[in-house]
Every structure is written in structure tokens, then in C-alpha cells.
Amino acid sequence: MKIAVFAGDGIGPEVTQQAVRVLQALDLPGLELVEGDVGGAAWRKHGHPLPEVTLEIARAADAILFGAVGDFACDHLERHLRPEQAILGLRKELGLFANLRPARVFPGLEGHSALRPEVAGAIDLLIVRELNGDVYFGDKGIRTLANGERQGWDLMAYSESEVRRIAHAGFKAARGRKGRLCSVDKANVLETSQVWRDVVTAVAAEYPDVELSHMYVDNAAMQLVKSPGQFDVVVTGNLFGDILSDQASMCVGSIGLLASASMAEGTKGLYEPIHGSAPDIAGQDKANPMATILSAAMLLRHSFGREAEAARIESAVAAALADGVFGGDLGGSYGTTAIGDAVLGKL
Amino acid sequence: MKIAVFAGDGIGPEVTQQAVRVLQALDLPGLELVEGDVGGAAWRKHGHPLPEVTLEIARAADAILFGAVGDFACDHLERHLRPEQAILGLRKELGLFANLRPARVFPGLEGHSALRPEVAGAIDLLIVRELNGDVYFGDKGIRTLANGERQGWDLMAYSESEVRRIAHAGFKAARGRKGRLCSVDKANVLETSQVWRDVVTAVAAEYPDVELSHMYVDNAAMQLVKSPGQFDVVVTGNLFGDILSDQASMCVGSIGLLASASMAEGTKGLYEPIHGSAPDIAGQDKANPMATILSAAMLLRHSFGREAEAARIESAVAAALADGVFGGDLGGSYGTTAIGDAVLGKL
Ligand SMILES: CC(C)[C@H](C(=O)O)[C@@H](O)C(=O)O
Ligand SMILES: CC(C)[C@H](C(=O)O)[C@@H](O)C(=O)O
């Protein structure tokens, strides 16, 4: 089991360290951890947020555990040198086209959401976000118009095959859950969404056991606040998925607890907490490592089929939470290492 | 005062009728109401959702009161013939580039939001959404790639002058409120956002009394759930504004109470409830007309400078709500006409 560990910037290293401790405590056969530089940290050392040496480590690994990237000191850099390019580059270079973001309130934590407890408590959804296309990776630039002013432009696009593979990922995920898939687009305005909707509708024929619905993105953003309990699996494009998955995670109330998986064809995947690098609290033992620890659980499940160990980690986190092991994000006083200790104690 | 009244589809006619009753009750000097067809209703009569005769009425009017468009019977039509094209066409043809959507919980209605009452009660924000550019109005189409598959594409773009005029609208609105402007973009991914951010930052120099901040759209979607009370004025592009303004309206809890204004340069404007045509309850006297009545108040304020009458309408609606005049959207049993009667009674 070759796992690349890319800790990154800000709180990335400290939360990743706790997840590594958990992995090491599980006695996994042939566990091999290989560290690599990404983000601002990589830019400082190698002049690039995703240097070739890191990419090689990623290519050689079966799975990647990723911390977070983002560093205010890089704000002055050109966009292609900024820390965020590390994660965008890994997604593209490794063909990580399907981002899975489960959102569910941990039992007893309903009161931590901004939503009313009965609304938050009903949330149990999975967002399947396309990660390799859309306006993220289309041609883009800044041009000078005939009248002399500058215009920024980005091409949004999806081809049938790009939509087809993420649609399959969505239907398969729904099949393994409650059997409902909601496809989100803006087909009343976008031609990109028209192709999206056509393909998702066609793929549905292969999954007669899954109930498909379509929703416009503006309505989806409303419904995620009004009654998020209505959703099982949501499949959507890169840009809408970026917005809706962050929104959904906040409905759960605890961004410090949410993990994500980004999958290529096959079992290769990158696993990361959905929170950012939080440079303001970096190095202070204040960050909650649970989201990264839970990302390690997803890694064992999705890349190595190790359901038992994944469930062991998840139960340990749940048990620690039930004991009141709360980080600052939940209004508690447990530090990064203490939370790691508590989870290890429950393993 | 020449006001075009475009009632549209579904519940549009019945809610608009109540707003017209309110306008007529105010003894406005020289009030002239001119009706016109839009949406599915116009398509049935004229073969187009925004016929030239309607456009002429709109051009000749000082302001437009708009109901709602959208009709399932038109789902089979090509996109350019669908009801939604009426509102997109009016925005473009009349140069309605600034959409103002205030979101605030009516006193006593905090319990109707999916957000916890103390979170919802703190909301008092205004979204200023650009309406004439972005991926809505760029070149778009469906093409066949070299490998034979179809690709849908839409060009996202903003030029400096397009951003500048909406930035001014945002800063001016902030100046008239609590003096804080949050500009939302996705500058870590989009070149369009890069130009957006540059221009907004430059325009800020002309408003030293307004405090400017920038936020990525995914973070904004989170913050709108977590602590919406932090926002005063939010300025953003057409697509992000579509999503965030619907999300914000649902945080308030009562989509049946929210009005909007879409302004051109000068005082010409189009005013509409933010809810849709709700064909499922059309013609049943079930819809809440308050959002349309409040849109008429915005019309008097923004297009005619009639602050006194606008405030009179708003107070009447608030008084009716305080009396428990709730439509079905608020769990009450008041019908469309009864709500109109109640508001008229409080004028
Ligand atoms: C850092 C940024 C480029 C990234 C994205 O927009 O995809 C992030 O927001 C995410 O969702 O992983
Ligand atoms: C009907 C649709 C085209 C429209 C939009 O996307 O602008 C609507 O959602 C709105 O916000 O007014």
C-alpha cells in the first residue's frame, strides 16, 4: 500500500500528521508512506506549487493523502504559481474526475449547525462533483477589446464523454445508498447544461433502480437550505459542485469534520479534508484533524477496499466526539495533538 | 407615471392583480397601467415569449411590474422560445444591468427560516447582481468535436466597463446602508474574476467611506449559511448572483415575501417577486401576493422617488403579517385575494 502524503500549507502539516499516526496504528500490511511538497511550501523549495518530483510521487502511489494548500505570502504570484494550482494540477494530471463529498451530521452535533437541529439532523447526502472539466479547465485569458478595454474570459464546456463518466459515478453512488440521484445544472441558460442534461438522462436508462431528478442550480442552493434532507446523491459540474458542496458542508455545521475523495478511473484517489489551510491558526495546535483522519478512512475504503479499517477509524472519531472531544471549530478546547490522541485511544 | 404590467404565467396574473389593486388605492397622480404579454402566455398568443409589441410597451414605460414566467407546456420548445427568455430578453433589451435583492426577515418571522432564529434574525443584506453579462449572454452553442461527440459550450466574460458600472451600483448601495461591500468572485480559477476583482478594487478608491472585502464564491455560499448577519451589500456577477441570491432568500425563510428591482442607467427599472410561476398552484387563489406587492413598493421608490408611498405599502404588509395574515408559504390559510384585502385594509 503506497500512500503519498502531501501535507501542504498552513494547518496542512499538523492535521496530516495526526491522520498519519492513525494509519500507522492500524498495522496495515506493507504500508508505505512517501512525503511530497505541494502548495506554497513547494513553491518556496522548488519554485512551483506542484513540482515534477511531487507529480512523480503521486503517479507512483496508489493513493494520496492531501492536507491543504493556500498561503497569503503567495498572493502576489501569477495565478499559475499560486498554491491552489497544486490541487488543480493533481486533479488534471491524475485524471481525478469524480469528487465525492459526503455530508452528514454526527449524532449529537445537530446543535452545531446554523440550521435548526431538526433540519440539520435530516442531512445525509453525497455530492458527486465533476473535477476535470467545466470552466475550470477551458481556454481562458484576458484580452484587449477593440475599444481598448480589457476583458477577462473563460470557456465553459462539457463534452458527452466527460458528462457520461461522472453520470455513471453518480448513478453508482446512488445505487449504493438510497437510490435517488439529483442532477444539478442551469439548462435554462447554458448550452453546456443542455448537453449535461441530455447525457445524464440517457445514462439513466442503465440504472432503472435509481430515481433521477433534475434541478436548476439556483433552486438547488435554495433547497439545500430549506430542506437538505430531501437529497440523497447530487451529481453536478465542477463549478456548481464547488459552490454547492461547500454550502452543504456548512449546513452540517462542522467543516472541521468533513472528508472528501477525488477518484480517477479505477481505485486511484486523492483524499483531503474539505477545509482550507487556515494560515491564521497554523502551527498553533488549534486545528481539528478529524476531517483529515476521516479522509484517511475514505482512502482505505475507496482505494484499498479496506472497509473494516475504514469503519474502525470512523467509529473511533464518533466515539471521541461522543466523549466531548471537541476542537475549537465545535466550541471545544481540544488541540490538534490531543484530538489525535483521543482518536487513537478509541481505535 | 407610466407602468407596464407584465403578469406572465402560472401564479403571475393573480399575484400581480393584488399589487395593481394596491397601486390603484394610493391615488398616485397620472398613474397609467399598460398590460403586456410575456412568457408562455405570450408564446401562445404571439408565438414568442417576448413579442415586439411587448417590448414596445416596455420601452415606452417608466417602469415595469413583472409577475413570473415559466410554463411546463413550453418545456418541449427550443430554448429561445421558452418563457424564461422573456425575462432574459427584457434585461438585455432594456439594459437592466443591476439586480437589487434585499433579504431581511420580517419581525416575528424568524421562526420560519430553516436557519436557527438567532442566525436568521441577524440577516439584513442586499445582493447586487450584474444582469447583462457573464456566461448568460456570451457566445454559446453545441458543437461536434473531431471524435464525433457533442460538446456544449458557453463563453463567460466580463469587460472592465461592465464590471465598473455594477461596482458603482454596489458601492452606492453600501453607502446608503451600513457602508460595507463584499465582492464575490472565483479569482483563484477564473480570468473573468481577475478582471472583476481588479476593477472593483480600482473603483473602491472613489468610495473611501465604504469598506470593501473580497470573497470566493464557494466561501460566500458557506458564510451565507454560517453567519449571514456578517453581510451588508454583496456585489457579484450574473451567475454567482443567481445562485447566492436564491440561497440568501431561502435563509430568510419566506420566498413569498421577497421583492427585487432590476435597474438600467437612470431610473428605469423592472420589479418582480423573486419567486417563480409555481404552475402547480396557479389559479387556485393560493399564492402569496406579498412579494409582488413589495415589488410595487420598490418600483415607487426606485423609479419614481416616491419614498412615502413605498414606505406606506411596506408598513401595510408588515402590519398584516403582525396580524397573522399568513399565506400557505408561511403555513397559514390566507388566500391570494384575502391577503390583498388585508394589505389594502392596512394602507
Ligand atoms: C482551491 C480551489 C481551486 C478549489 C476549487 O475551486 O476546486 C477548492 O475550492 C475546492 O473546492 O477544492
Ligand atoms: C429564469 C432564469 C433564467 C432566471 C435567471 O437565471 O436569471 C431566474 O433564475 C432569476 O434569477 O431571475
UniProtKB/TrEMBL annotation, chains A, B:
Keywords: Amino-acid biosynthesis, Branched-chain amino acid biosynthesis, Cytoplasm, Leucine biosynthesis, Magnesium, Manganese, Metal-binding, NAD, Oxidoreductase
Residue ranges of domain Isopropylmalate dehydrogenase-like in the record: 2-343
Compartment(s): Cytoplasm
Comment on bound cofactor: Binds 1 Mg(2+) or Mn(2+) ion per subunit.
Site note Important for catalysis, residues: 136, 186
Biological pathway: Amino-acid biosynthesis; L-leucine biosynthesis; L-leucine from 3-methyl-2-oxobutanoate: step 3/4
Pfam families the record matches: Iso_dh
Catalytic activity reported: (2R,3S)-3-isopropylmalate + NAD(+) = 4-methyl-2-oxopentanoate + CO2 + NADH
CC per GO annotation: cytosol
Leading EC class: oxidoreductase
Listed GO biological process terms: L-leucine biosynthetic process
Annotated Mg(2+) binding sites: 218, 242, 246
EC number: 1.1.1.85
Family indicated by similarity: Belongs to the isocitrate and isopropylmalate dehydrogenases family. LeuB type 1 subfamily.
Complexes and interactors: Homodimer.
UniProt protein name: 3-isopropylmalate dehydrogenase
Organism field: Novosphingobium piscinae
Gene: leuB
